[in-house]
C-alpha cells in the first residue's frame, strides 16, 4: 500500500484520490497509513479525496464528508457536524451500523476444544542441497481451552499466525502438539479417521468472492457437505439446503443461481449456510466480515450472534477488526509472532489491557 501511495505521489499531484486505502489491512498498519497520508498532505499541501466505508478512518482524517447512496450525494457537511448530528436517514443508518453490543448469552459447558503446546514451524531452506537453516515459527507453543457455546476471538497483526492456528486446529495443515475435540485426541488420528468429524467442525472464510466455486450453483455449494457425508436422501438434502438458506435470512427460491449473481453480503450468508447445514459444534470464522461494508457487517454479526444463541454454537473468530471481535467474543487471545501475549475474558481485556502490544492494537483501532 505504501508503494501504491509512492507511485501516486511521484509527480507531486495537487489532488490524491485514495480509494479504500486501508481495506484488508490490520489496525496497526491502518494507523500508519493514516499518519502517512496526513503527513504527506501537510508537507505537499495537496488535496485528498478519501473514499472509504471505514467511518473511524473518515472521522479522523476528513475536514468535510459527503455521504453517497445509489449514485447521489444525500448529505454533506463538515466532519464534526455530520458525525454529531446527521440529518439524512441513510447517514444515521451508517453511523448506527458500527458493531455494538456484546456476545450472545449462552450456557457455559465443558471444554469442546482443547489445544496443548501447538506448533506450526515452516523450514527455511538454503543452498544447493536445500538444507534447513532455520524455521518460521508461525505458531509457537499455543495453549487454549474453549467451552461449548463460547466464542474465542483471536487477534493480532497480519502475519502473527492467527489463520495458521485455525487451520492447524482443524487439521488442514500439519502441526505438532495436542488437539482435543470433545475429549477425543485429533492429532493422533489419520486424515481418514478425522473425516467423520469434519461435519462437526466447519469454516467460513474471509473472501465471499473467492471461497464459493463459480462453477456450482448455490444449492450445490450449500449441499456439498451433505453429499460428501451421505446425510439423508436427495429429497432430505434439498429440504436441509432450503432450511439452511432460510436460517441465514436468504430466499431459497434463487438457489439454482450462481454466486456472481449475489452481493458480497449475500455470498457470505451462503458461506455461513454451507457451514450451518451440517449442524456443526464448532465453526472457524476467518475474517468473515473484512470484505463487507459496515451495514452488512452489522447484519452478519447479528446473524452469527442469533445462530450461536439458538444452537449453542462454538466459534473460533479470527479477525483484525477489533470492534467486531468485541461484539462477538466471550474470550480473547492476542497473538504476536506465533505466541500468545495476552489471553482471558474479552470484556476484561478490552477494558484494561495488560500487555503493551494489546494496548497498541486497541489504540490503533481507536478503542481506547
TrEMBL record:
Which molecular function terms from Gene Ontology are attached? ATP binding; ATP hydrolysis activity
The lineage's top-level taxon is Bacteria
* Alphabetical UniProt keywords: ATP-binding, Nucleotide-binding, Transport
- Subunit structure and binding partners: The complex is composed of two ATP-binding proteins (DppD and DppF), two transmembrane proteins (DppB and DppC) and a solute-binding protein (DppA1-A5). Five orthologous SBPs (DppA1-A5) are present in P.aeruginosa, which increases the substrate specificity of the DppBCDF transporter.
What is the role of the protein in this entry? Part of the ABC transporter DppABCDF involved in the uptake of various di/tripeptides. Is also involved in the uptake of phaseolotoxin, a toxic tripeptide inhibiting the enzyme ornithine carbamoyltransferase. Responsible for energy coupling to the transport system.
- Family, as annotated: Belongs to the ABC transporter superfamily.
Q: Which GO terms describe its biological process?
A: peptide transport; transmembrane transport
Source organism of this protein record = Pseudomonas veronii
EC number, as in UniProt: 7.4.2.9
Q: What is this protein called?
A: ABC-type dipeptide transporter
Decide whether keyword Nucleotide-binding is in the record.
Answer: yes
Amino acid at each position: 500500500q505504501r508503494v501504491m501511495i509512492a507511485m501516486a505521489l511521484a509527480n507531486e499531484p495537487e489532488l490524491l484520490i485514495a480509494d479504500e486505502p486501508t481495506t484488508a489491512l490490520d489496525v496497526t498498519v491502518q494507523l500508519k497509513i493514516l499518519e502517512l497520508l496526513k503527513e504527506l498532505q501537510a508537507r505537499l499541501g495537496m488535496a485528498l479525496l478519501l473514499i472509504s466505508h471505514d467511518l473511524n478512518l473518515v472521522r479522523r482524517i476528513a475536514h468535510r464528508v459527503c455521504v453517497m447512496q445509489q449514485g447521489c450525494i444525500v448529505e454533506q457537511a463538515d466532519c464534526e457536524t455530520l458525525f454529531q448530528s446527521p440529518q439524512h436517514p441513510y447517514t444515521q443508518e451508517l453511523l448506527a451500523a458500527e458493531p455494538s453490543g456484546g456476545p450472545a448469552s449462552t450456557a457455559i459447558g465443558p471444554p469442546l476444544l482443547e489445544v496443548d503446546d501447538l506448533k506450526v514451524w515452516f523450514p527455511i531452506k538454503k543452498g544447493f542441497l536445500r538444507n534447513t537453516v532455520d524455521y518460521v515459527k508461525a505458531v509457537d507453543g499455543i495453549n487454549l481451552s474453549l467451552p461449548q457455546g463460547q466464542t474465542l476471538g483471536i487477534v493480532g497483526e497480519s502475519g502473527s499466525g492467527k489463520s495458521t492456528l485455525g487451520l492447524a486446529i482443524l487439521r488442514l495443515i500439519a502441526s505438532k502438539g495436542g488437539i482435543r475435540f470433545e475429549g477425543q485426541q485429533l492429532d493422533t488420528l489419520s486424515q481418514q479417521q478425522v473425516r467423520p468429524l469434519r461435519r462437526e467442525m466447519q469454516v467460513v472464510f474471509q473472501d465471499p468472492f473467492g471461497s464459493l466455486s463459480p462453477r456450482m450453483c448455490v444449492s450445490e455449494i450449500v449441499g456439498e457437505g451433505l453429499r460428501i457425508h451421505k446425510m439423508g436422501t436427495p429429497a432430505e438434502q434439498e429440504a436441509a439446503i432450503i432450511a439452511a438458506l432460510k436460517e441465514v435470512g436468504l430466499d431459497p427460491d434463487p438457489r439454482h443461481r450462481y454466486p456472481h449473481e449475489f452481493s458480497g453480503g449475500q455470498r457470505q450468508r451462503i458461506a455461513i449456510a454451507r457451514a450451518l447445514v451440517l449442524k456443526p459444534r464448532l465453526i472457524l470464522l476467518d475474517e468473515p466480515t473484512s470484505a463487507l461494508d459496515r451495514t452488512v457487517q452489522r447484519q452478519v454479526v447479528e446473524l452469527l450472534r442469533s445462530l450461536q444463541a439458538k444452537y449453542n454454537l462454538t466459534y473460533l473468530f479470527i479477525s483484525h477488526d477489533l470492534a467486531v471481535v468485541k461484539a462477538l467474543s466471550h474470550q480473547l487471545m492476542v497473538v504476536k509472532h506465533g505466541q500468545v501475549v495476552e489471553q482471558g475474558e474479552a470484556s476484561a481485556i478490552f477494558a484494561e489491557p495488560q500487555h503493551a502490544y494489546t494496548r497498541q492494537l486497541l489504540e490503533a483501532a481507536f478503542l481506547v
